[in-house]
From TrEMBL:
Annotated source species: Manacus vitellinus (golden-collared manakin)
A GO-annotated cellular component: plasma membrane
Segments crossing the lipid bilayer: 238-262, 380-400, 434-452, 480-501, 507-526, 538-557, 563-585, 625-644, 650-671, 683-703, 734-753
Cellular compartment(s): Membrane
Chief localization: membrane
Membrane topology: Multi-pass membrane protein
Biased composition (Acidic residues): 333-343
Protein's name according to its UniProt entry: SID1 transmembrane family member 1
Keywords for this protein: Glycoprotein, Membrane, Signal, Transmembrane, Transmembrane helix
Keyword match Nucleotide-binding: no
Biased composition (Low complexity): 310-320
Protein family according to the UniProt entry: Belongs to the SID1 family.
Region entry Disordered, spans: 293-343
Pfam families per record: SID-1_RNA_chan (PF13965)
Length: 768
């Protein structure tokens, strides 16, 4: 047991010109202070304390002294021309050394700091120092310093040595044995003279009174408990759990692929015995079927999914991919219109006529050359790789610099961790927050493998195909799927980078690819039945860049500046109207080029007037109108909500807009699919259910806020909570795990949703 000595002094003099000077000389150091003791605050305010209490640095025993003896010299002096009364009291501290798993209560003030000694037990390599207080203020600082004299225990020098945190009600510091060669350290507690560093305000009572004397009015009661941290075996268990958990997805995918392979082999064998030599293999599905009449499983009496002889004969007249058979049915075009349409020399000259038909089918919007369209969508893949490389490299360099600064300075207020569940490894302060992002990378790569398999099967089928096969099912363009897989992997990489040192300056690392994932999913859903008119990769990524810029501006200006919310709401509403007009008329309004339509908003008003006033009973494109009305109401509601409430977390606000629009469009797509007598196969049905369940669980953990860089570091630490999984992962780590799985299932929904249409002709597949 180590004993320490504490010196208490008090002087009734408030004369700042003639303070009483105290100098304490010890074996290896000198400690000095004055009474009144002066602290300086914000705007050069001063706070004077007449009572001062300091703990002296414990001395090492020498051969000339017994272990319990300490030789101390105390010098008292003043330059005052008159006598000054003072009080001096020296006491021995009975509870100077802290014990493991034992709470210790004490009080401290700005002029009476406290520090205690802790020695590592033999079987403990890492400990967590938990400090709690019932009162948020006064603001305090907790510091861990090596056994070196003097100890820095005042407000102006506590940051000079060791590791430190500001604190209101809670603080936690993880300390490792390897960082202290002597296997012991001091835990220092300092009370700050002002509270602004912890989020508080300057007390109004001191305005205009710069020399007010404060004695024990800023006393704070604290409780410190030092508990052992996790052992190395827990790190190994956590890593095995993370990798094996997501490797099970690989195993499940292999099983599903094997079952499909066996099923397709038996199916193709049976079909060879039943179907004549004119049969062909439907691309991408692995199902052998005939180019002669096909009957889909539709309600009795319905012609949906059936190919009559006239349509078949019409298809045989097509001699190249560029010349397609007439699209549509008896309900949307006459024979004369079809013959006139076939004589048109270029697709570009007739798309204005086709896309304004009341009833559109997939064949009407998949007329462009398949190879050209596929190359167009592959640009999404190559562009996102370029973006990822140029985005990730400076991000990695920046977060490495942040972590280095934290390790060198010891300032743990730079990064907003959940300090009650921050497990260091090497130079990383919170390895668990980084490890939990492995799911995004592993499942993103698995999704790329699944898409690659489908792409290879599709290409093999195309090499073996008859020319008529081009008219079956949803056009297979995999560029957007590849881009989605890369985006999921990059979300894991950048989220891990963000959690190296999460703070106000690098929040966008964690959200940038979330915006891109939501946007790519919407584009893919729209591309499914509009392959010829989807946005180009350049315009799509440019739009994402604008969104990310708005997100950064929102965090900087969105807290207090009303003008930003007005401008953003106007941009949001106008963008919704412009996009709605483009969707309603199938991209026939252009914003650029020689045929630009500068009156797009005027035409939007005319659309509302024509479809909602003149013929309110039945708009020309009823389904699209319903979707766009609901979508605009949702987006306008978001704009009004932001304008009125001005949410502090602007990044999550933007992400919420994207997610709500994606969910709205997906729900509309599934409803319209079922309305059109299309089926949901078992795999997409399973993926839809899994997506809903996993997203619900993930969002529950997402809203368990464990820290917030929108507040001060001390206020953020009030939200810290212990680990909940394996003693290693916290709520946010569970969010990482579940959100990775939820995104993976969401991608599979988009990939498999229309597998039931692989045996249906495109002129029978409706567009919505």
């Amino acid at each position: 047991q180590v004993d320490a000595v504490r010196v208490y002094v008090n002087s009734s003099s408030e004369n700042l010109r003639y303070p009483v000077l105290f100098v304490v000389r010890q074996q290896k150091g000198v400690l000095s202070w004055q009474v009144p003791l002066i602290f300086r605050g914000l705007y050069q305010r001063t706070y004077n304390y007449q009572e001062v209490s300091r703990t002296l640095c414990p001395s090492e025993p020498t051969p000339e002294t017994r272990p319990s003896d300490q030789i101390i010299f105390v010098d008292v002096a003043s330059m005052a021309p008159f006598n000054i009364a003072y009080e001096l009291l020296v006491t021995r501290l009975k509870n100077f050394q802290l014990e493991t798993n034992r709470a210790f209560n004490f009080t401290a003030s700005p002029s009476q700091p406290q520090y205690f000694l802790y020695k590592f037990p033999q079987d403990v390599d890492s400990v967590i120092i938990n400090v709690v207080s019932d009162a948020a203020y006064p603001c305090s600082v907790v510091s861990v310093q090596d056994i070196v004299c003097p100890v820095y225990d005042l407000d102006h020098n506590v940051e000079f040595n060791g590791v430190y945190q500001s604190m209101t009600k809670q603080a936690a510091i993880t300390v490792q044995r390897k960082d202290f060669p002597g296997e012991q350290f001091f835990v220092v507690f300092v009370i700050k003279p002002e509270d602004y560093a912890c989020g508080g305000s300057v007390p109004s009572s001191i305005h205009g009174n710069a020399n007010r004397t404060w004695n024990l009015q800023r006393t704070k009661s604290l409780q410190v408990t030092i508990v052992p941290s996790i052992k190395k075996s827990v790190y190994v268990q956590a890593m095995f759990f993370s990798f094996l958990g997501f490797l099970s997805f690989y195993l499940g995918s292999v099983v599903v692929a094997f079952v499909h392979y066996i099923r397709d082999v038996f199916w193709s064998t049976d079909m060879k015995l039943m179907v004549p030599l004119g049969s062909v293999c439907i691309a991408g599905s692995g199902i052998m079927t005939s180019s002669h009449p096909i009957s889909a499983s539709t309600p009795e009496g319905s012609s949906y999914g059936a190919i009559d002889e006239s349509s078949s004969s019409g298809g045989r007249q097509m001699s190249s991919p560029e010349r397609r058979p007439p699209a549509g049915s008896d309900t949307d075009s006459s024979v004369e219109e079809e013959s006139d349409f076939d004589t048109m020399p270029e697709i570009e000259s007739d798309k204005n006529i086709i896309r304004t038909k009341v009833f559109l089918y997939l064949s009407d919007l998949s007329r462009k050359d398949r190879r050209i369209v596929s190359k167009k969508y592959k640009i999404y893949f190559w562009n996102i790789i370029t973006i990822a490389v140029f985005y990730a490299l400076p991000v990695i360099q920046l977060v490495i610099t942040y972590q280095t600064v934290v390790n060198v300075t010891g300032n743990q207020d730079i990064c907003y961790y959940n300090f009650l569940c921050a497990h260091p490894l090497g130079v990383l302060s919170a390895f668990n927050n980084i490890l939990s992002n492995v799911g995004h990378m592993m499942l993103g790569f698995l999704f790329l493998l699944i898409v690659l398999r489908r792409d290879i099967l599709h290409r093999r089928a195309m090499e073996m195909k008859d020319i008529y096969t081009l008219d079956y099912g949803i056009p297979k363009h995999f560029g957007l799927f590849y881009a989605m897989g890369i985006a999921l992997m990059m979300e894991g990489v950048l989220s891990a980078c963000y959690h190296v040192c999460p703070n106000y300056s690098n929040f966008q690392f964690d959200t940038s690819f979330m915006y891109m994932i939501a946007g790519l999913c919407m584009l893919k859903l729209y591309q499914t039945r509009h392959p010829d008119i989807n946005a180009s990769a350049y315009s799509a990524y440019a739009s994402f860049a604008v969104v990310i810029c708005l997100a950064v501006l929102g965090v900087v200006f969105g807290k207090n500046d009303m003008w930003f919310w007005v401008v953003f709401s106007i941009i949001h509403v106008l963008a919704s109207l412009a996009l709605s007009t483009q969707i309603y008329y199938m991209g026939r309004f252009k914003m650029d080029g020689p045929d630009s339509d500068l009156g797009i908003f005027r035409r939007a008003v005319m659309v509302l007037y024509t479809d909602c006033i003149q013929q309110c009973s039945r708009p020309m494109y009823m389904d699209r109108m319903v979707l766009l009305i609901v979508g605009n109401l949702v987006n306008w509601s978001f704009a009004i909500f932001g304008l009125v409430y001005r949410p502090r977390d602007f990044a999550s606000y933007i992400l919420g807009i994207f997610i709500c629009n994606l969910l709205l469009y997906l729900a509309f797509y599934i409803i319209m699919k079922l309305r059109s007598s299309e089926k949901l196969l078992p795999i997409p049905m399973f993926c839809i259910v899994a997506t809903a369940v996993v997203w619900a669980a993930a969002l529950y953990f997402f809203f368990q806020t464990l820290s917030s860089w929108e507040e001060t570091p001390a206020e953020s630490r009030e939200k810290n909570r212990p680990c909940i999984l394996l003693g290693f992962f916290d709520d946010h780590d569970v969010w990482h795990f579940l959100s990775a799985a939820a995104l993976f299932f969401s991608f599979l929904v988009l990939l498999t949703l229309d597998d039931d249409l692989d045996t249906v002709r495109r002129d029978k597949i409706p567009v919505f």
